[in-house]
Design brief:
There is one protein chain. The chain has one domain: Carbamate kinase (3-Layer(aba) Sandwich), CATH 3.40.1160. By secondary structure, the protein is of the alpha/beta class. The model has no long low-confidence stretch (mean pLDDT 92). The protein is built from 8 helices and 11 strands. Helix 1 links the parallel strand 1 (5-11) and strand 2.
Amino acid sequence: MNELKIILLKLTGTSLLNENKELDANLINSIAKQINSLRDKYYFAVVIGGGNFFRGDEQGKKLGIRPNIGHQVGMLATVINGLLIKNSFEDNGIDNVILSSIENHFTGKFANQDNIDEALRNNKSIIFVAGTGNPFFSTDTASVLRALQINAHEVWKATNVDGVYDEDPRTHPNTNLIKKLSCTEAINKKIGIMDLAAFALAQQHALPIRIFNIFEPDALIKASNDNNFGSLIYSRSSL
């Protein structure tokens, strides 16, 4: 482990969906294959979102669910995605363990520091599910928290856009891609690619965050080979 660069890979739940908004085994398998091919240089742990099934802030509001219950439903959605990733990892020979912020002996172990350290000692890729285990905290914040717990060198947020833009590219087609910005700038500009709590925690601990499009062919390979792939959010002391 000492010679490997440790990466916390934050996967949006929509990274598991094809253009028809359907779960796609080929997409999940592609991510696993890329991780497997990089294991001589990197150790990967994964935080998975659940937005392909349920978002507490969106569907919860539409259904009139109390916010804390909506967020709990969203956390359970991440457990489903974690099992899908676990299956793909095992098919590709990646030794792994699911660690859940919600105690669930049917799917994995509890995400405490002892179990995290055990997985690291045994070089098992960790699949973190259920966010932080608390409502009102996103899986973005969970990814920074888990990155700190595994002493990650970087967070890679693999999403459905090419990086950080000054405006939402889905509604502003002429917006500009920002290749590099500080956590302070991201907070002050209220960059919506991650929530402000995640940026603040990363800034406090000088943890760099790379953001890129997981749907780009061989996106993880490109992120490993090209420091300019996607966008980098940094703190001054992490440069």
